Amino acid sequence: MRQQETTIPYKRQKLREIKNNRLFTKGKRKKILNNLKRKLTLLREELEYIKKYQEMYKRVLQQTKKKRDNDRYVTEASNKTKAMWQLISREIGKTQDDYKVELKVGNDIISNPMVITEKLNMYFMNIMAELVKQNINKGSYNNSRHKIKHCPNSIFISPLIEEEVVSLAKNLKDKLTAGYDDTPESLVKQCIQLIKGPLTHLYNVSLRSEVFPDECKLAKVKPLYKKGDRYDIQNYRPVSIISVFAKLLERLMFNRLTPFLHNIKILTDAQNGFRKGKCIGTAVQSFIEIIQEALDKGIHSTGIFIDFKSL
To answer: Which helix (H) or strand (E) holds 117?
Structure first.
């Protein structure tokens, strides 16, 4: 023990001394280089080194600030997945908020908003009929009708109560976007206590009569660019912004229809989209498990991927 203390003696150091003895950070290094540049006459190579280091330091600060802002943006967002994809689109240059839609018809470029609206409207209305017509000609539509399994069970639609309507309205997002009636979700969310009575009555009448109100079928249609040539009308698909009242009615009916479909097992377990507790992650997981099981059994696996044409 005495020999160890002689060769490696103990040294006492105050905490204040350790605290002041900080690391040689990039900021300190930049400060020292700037002082040398001001006080001494340096060679050209040394000045070039200081300049490159200053540029590197500035770039690191910008990247650090950008990362901090992006982390804060995702953390504070109510929909973190959507916020993440917005950042990805911004990084790869896919932002299109201020893009002005222009279409090419023949050899002419159309920029008149009214003419563009009419062209897009005609295209969106006719494309569905055209796709159905193509399927009928191929015989796939008529053949598929015989494979549909009919359900002998009946569904009972329970009447609505005001508390259910209020609960759904409170879950609305505070968006300012509005449908055909120009009524934003945020306004309905704030005023739901004042309109819950007549709104519940109208929804119950709609469910009893099995009629979806015509006014709720109207929507604002926004053309969304997908990919390819921006002047090609086929590279746009419609996005419908429906009325907030139609959205509530759809959700009320969804809450009654989903348990019925789940209890009588109409939906296959392979469907992962638009189902509670399932998502693209569960679909990928099932796909991987099937491949792993086939590999363990020495069976060859073949994947067929179909890309449906989007409207």
So the answer is: helix 113-138
**How do beta strands 236-242 and 108-110 pair?**
unpaired
Question: Do 283 and 274 touch, CB atoms closer than 8 A?
Answer: no
Whether this prediction's pTM lies above 0.70 is answered by no
Percent of the chain with pLDDT over 70: 78
Give yes or no for a contact between 124 and 239, defined as CB atoms under 8 angstroms apart. no
Contact call for residues 233 and 119 (beta carbons, < 8 A) = yes
The pLDDT of residue 28 is 63
Round to whole Å and give the CA distance between 307 and 225.
18
Both tokens of residue 247?
């959205």
Taking the mean position of all CA atoms in its chain, how far away is CA 4?
A: 64
What is the distance between the alpha carbons of residues 267 and 277, in angstroms, rounded to a whole number?
14
Average pLDDT, the chain: 79
Q: For the beta carbon of residue 200, count every other beta carbon within 10 angstroms.
A: 19
